[in-house]
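Lecture notes, continued. The same structure-token format from the folding unit now serves as the input rather than the output. Read the line below as a description of shape only.
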């Protein structure tokens, strides 16, 4: 698809700005709602349509999309869609996601938005060490990149102070380690350390 006017949605609506962008936003949000309501076996249909609509945004200026989204009120899918717009900046995507207050935590419906982020704005890596460096301590970007790595995530770094890891990141690391059919000794030790860091601390009297 080459631009909004010749796109799936643009052909039906005849343009690329104003109310037409609002209609596209509504369609992306509607597909997310349908996905949440659908049986797992049917969700791929909504995912495929969502991806098509997101790609239609390639010729839409990020500033126009962002202005519209903030006029409506920030939403997670508005932020995700921003990543596909022309001249989009990943820092603004994170800012708008956080403003939406949509939680990113383990679970298909919570992780879904992260899977639709434009990969061109993110580092192409499954290395946990690289993810940590690129996130620079920013919990949302850290978790989103862990989501995108999926089962290919490489636990190639050690944490000297697991208790200092943001709780949102800890939840994802524990979830990914728990899913592994087998763990190396360092991975098992990391999981134990993470669980210990999350355990309630007894208070001394």
């Amino acid at each position: 698809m080459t631009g909004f006017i010749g796109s799936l949605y643009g052909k039906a609506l005849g343009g690329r700005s104003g109310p037409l962008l609002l209609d596209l936003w509504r369609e992306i949000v509607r597909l997310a709602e349908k996905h949440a309501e659908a049986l797992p076996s049917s969700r791929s249909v909504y995912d495929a349509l969502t991806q098509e609509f997101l790609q239609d945004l390639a010729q839409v200026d990020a500033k126009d999309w962002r202005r519209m989204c903030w006029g409506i009120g920030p939403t997670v899918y508005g932020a995700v869609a921003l990543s596909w717009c022309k001249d989009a900046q990943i820092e603004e995507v994170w800012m708008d996601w956080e403003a939406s207050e949509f939680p990113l935590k383990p679970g298909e419906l919570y992780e879904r938005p992260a899977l639709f982020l434009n990969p061109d704005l993110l580092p192409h890596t499954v290395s946990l060490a690289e993810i940590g460096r690129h996130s620079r301590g920013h919990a949302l970007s850290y978790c989103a990149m862990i989501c995108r790595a999926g089962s290919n995530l490489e636990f190639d770094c050690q944490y000297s102070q697991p208790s200092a890891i943001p709780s949102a990141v800890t939840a994802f690391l524990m979830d990914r380690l728990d899913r592994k059919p087998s763990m190396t000794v360092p991975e098992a030790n990391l999981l134990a350390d993470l669980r210990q860091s999350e355990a309630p601390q007894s208070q001394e009297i």
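Point for the exam: The chain has eleven helices and no strands.
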